[in-house]
Design a protein that fits this description.
By secondary structure, this protein is an alpha/beta fold. It has 14 helices and 14 strands. The strands form three sheets. Strands 1, 2, 3, 4, 7, 12, 13 and 14 form an eight-stranded mixed sheet that branches. Helix 2 links the parallel strand 1 and strand 2. The longest helix has 22 residues.
Length: 365
């Protein structure tokens, strides 16, 4: 019945031809031109008469806008944008293949957007290096790899690293009980900050990937998409979750959703917007975009079915699917005050990172 309703809503449109629907996908995605081309091809098959207008918008740095109909946000900022009146909830009956999302999204009857992607700071290492594989946290990594011998994502993910460290100390529910910057968290972060040495000052790039592939460094801490830059590594690579500061492995995820703007009040335009959000989060788009014609981009889809399809030719997705399906998988959400909190985190973390990386703080034993 639901399938019939979805097909029906795609066939019947009561609005003028050549209306535009503005969309801002994620500005940090690799091969954005391909992403826009693929969703454009899928969209055109539905013959809605609404033309897509791709916009530039960044949930991390830009403010709320009313002129973007469909957009991507990090879940850390969803309550902020809800509070600012930019997001309209979506009924679960409007979401296609609703049962094909990882359980950690915990969808309700009214959803703040449709799940799109997951992400985590994984430990990436040569499959045969058991010493690295057995390391549970940054201090244990430091003990076996030495400072400066592990590439880390710190400079490109300072807010996430801080929140994960805070969750390690206070638990998942304790992450946002204060908007003060916690000095004990920064202190506990020292092993992680030292771990990458001066390498931690640079976000991942083709240059850092080439250095690791050439044998410079023993492990890589970063998002799984960095694997797209490491495909020439001479040995098989494995990924595993680990803790920033805790005594056991944590399984926290950053997540992205596709949302509908509250400014979309026209009934037919909202119908088109919901369809577009569904297609962006749908199996066809995710499989085609992530597989990248055989040159995998290694993003984590919100749909386990897509991970399992990708796992048929990229074995790392079998590990990813197992971790994302686990009962301890939790998504990092921010509260309504997170935007201000985030700016303060970035400032303090930049100071701590600079201190640890440039002055070589001694933090071992």
């Amino acid at each position: 019945m639901l399938a019939f309703l979805c097909v029906a809503c795609q066939r019947h449109w009561e609005r003028p031809i050549n209306q535009t629907l503005s969309v801002a996908v994620y500005p940090y995605l690799q091969r954005m031109d391909d992403a826009e081309r693929i969703i454009g091809e899928i969209w055109d098959r539905h013959n809605t008469g609404w033309e897509l207008d791709f916009k530039d918008w960044d949930c991390y740095t830009d403010g709320p806008r009313t002129d973007i109909d469909v957009f991507c946000i990090d879940c850390l900022f969803e309550q902020y944008y809800m509070n600012e009146g930019m997001i309209s909830t979506v009924s679960d009956t409007d979401i296609m293949d609703r049962d094909d999302f990882y359980d950690c999204f915990n969808l309700s009857d009214e959803c703040i957007g449709i799940p799109f992607l997951l992400c985590q700071d994984f430990l990436i290492y040569p499959s045969g290096d058991r010493q690295i594989a057995d390391a549970v946290n940054a201090r244990e990594l430091l003990d076996c790899a030495e400072a400066g011998n592990v590439w880390t994502l710190t400079a490109g993910n300072m807010n996430g690293i801080y929140l994960r460290a805070r969750a390690d100390i206070y638990g998942y529910e304790g992450m946002f009980h204060t908007t003060d910057i916690d000095q004990s968290v920064l202190e506990n972060l020292k092993p992680y900050l030292v771990l990458g040495g001066e390498k931690a000052l640079a976000a991942h790039s083709e240059e850092t990937a080439r250095a690791f592939v050439s044998g410079n460094g023993r492990a890589y801490v970063g998002f799984p998409e960095v694997l797209s830059l490491l495909q020439e590594y001479p040995e098989p690579l494995s990924i595993i979750n680990f803790s920033i500061t805790g005594s056991r492995r944590s399984n926290y995820y950053y997540a992205d959703k596709i949302c509908i703007n509250k400014s979309v009040t026209n009934k037919e335009k909202r119908k088109a917007a919901i369809l577009l959000a569904n297609l962006l989060c749908g199996r066809e788009f995710l499989e085609r975009y992530i597989s990248n014609e055989g040159k995998c981009l290694f993003y984590i889809p919100a749909r386990p079915s897509v991970s399992r399809t990708l796992g048929q030719w990229q074995s790392v997705y079998n590990s990813i699917d197992s971790l994302a399906s686990a009962n301890d998988a939790l998504i990092l959400y921010g509260d309504a005050a997170f935007r201000e909190y985030n700016d303060r985190i970035l400032s303090k973390m930049a100071e701590a990172l600079d201190d640890a990386s440039r002055q070589n703080i001694v933090c071992r034993h």
